[in-house]
Amino acid sequence: MIGSLIILTVSLALFAYWFRYTCLLILSAKPAKDYSGQVAANNRMAFPAVRRQLQGEPASGQLRALQASLDNDYRVIQYLLRHAKDLDAEAAPVEQFMLAADYRMMKLLYAVSRWMGLPGARRALAEMADIISYFAHAIGERTVAAPGAVSR
Question: Residue 102's closest CA among 8, 16, 39, 35?
Answer without folding.
Answer: 16
